[in-house]
Amino acid sequence: MSNPMKEIKVEKVVLNIGVGKGGKDLSNAEKILEEVAGQRPVRTHAKQTSQTFGFREGAPVGCKVTLRGDSAVQTLDKLLTVRGNELNESSFDEHGNFSFGIDEHIEIQGMDYDPEVGIFGMDVSVNLVRDGSRVKKRRRQSSSVASSHRVDKEEAIEFVKDKFDVRVV
């Protein structure tokens, strides 16, 4: 029998749309994320002023949603089908996390094109953990997680292949 503490889980899925400016485009992007994720997004703001891109520090430039639990797994499954259940090996980092992009939100099942809203792409970032990884994040008596208990790239790839039937190329 395998150790239940070694079981890999999806901790969170973060959906992000970077618009580059506030206004109507940003509110449209927020509507799209709310429709995809089923919860209200938060705005992201510029960290520094850039004359090249034309925004100032603190200006709203995008929006994001963090999903956890069953809704994260269901949304991730839906978003992976947009990619044809295929990911690049370079999408995975050495800590077992992975990210991918979606070019057009209208490719997602159940999303329709609205000419007033337009078409937006989004970034999807997924964090994989094992039970017990909370010890490094807690406020009191935080501790490091042993290297044998951390999720590495190969384990993350195997998890995604088994759980979501994804082909990694």
UniProtKB/TrEMBL annotation:
GO terms (BP aspect): translation
Keywords: Ribonucleoprotein, Ribosomal protein, RNA-binding, rRNA-binding, tRNA-binding
InterPro entries given in the database record: Ribosomal_uL5, Ribosomal_uL5_arc, Ribosomal_uL5_C, Ribosomal_uL5_CS, Ribosomal_uL5_dom_sf, Ribosomal_uL5_euk/arc-type, Ribosomal_uL5_N
Recorded GO CC terms: ribonucleoprotein complex; ribosome
Signal peptide: none
Ranges where the Large ribosomal subunit protein uL5 N-terminal domain occurs: 3-56
Lineage: superkingdom: Archaea
Pfam families noted in UniProt: Ribosomal_L5, Ribosomal_L5_C
MF term (GO), any: tRNA binding
Domain Large ribosomal subunit protein uL5 C-terminal: 60-148
Family in the record: Belongs to the universal ribosomal protein uL5 family.
Function recorded in the entry: This is 1 of the proteins that bind and probably mediate the attachment of the 5S RNA into the large ribosomal subunit, where it forms part of the central protuberance. In the 70S ribosome it contacts protein S13 of the 30S subunit (bridge B1b), connecting the 2 subunits; this bridge is implicated in subunit movement. May contact the P site tRNA; the 5S rRNA and some of its associated proteins might help stabilize positioning of ribosome-bound tRNAs.
Oligomer and partners: Part of the 50S ribosomal subunit; contacts the 5S rRNA and probably tRNA. Forms a bridge to the 30S subunit in the 70S ribosome.
Protein name in the entry: Large ribosomal subunit protein uL5
Organism: candidate division MSBL1 archaeon SCGC-AAA259O05
Gene behind this protein: rpl5
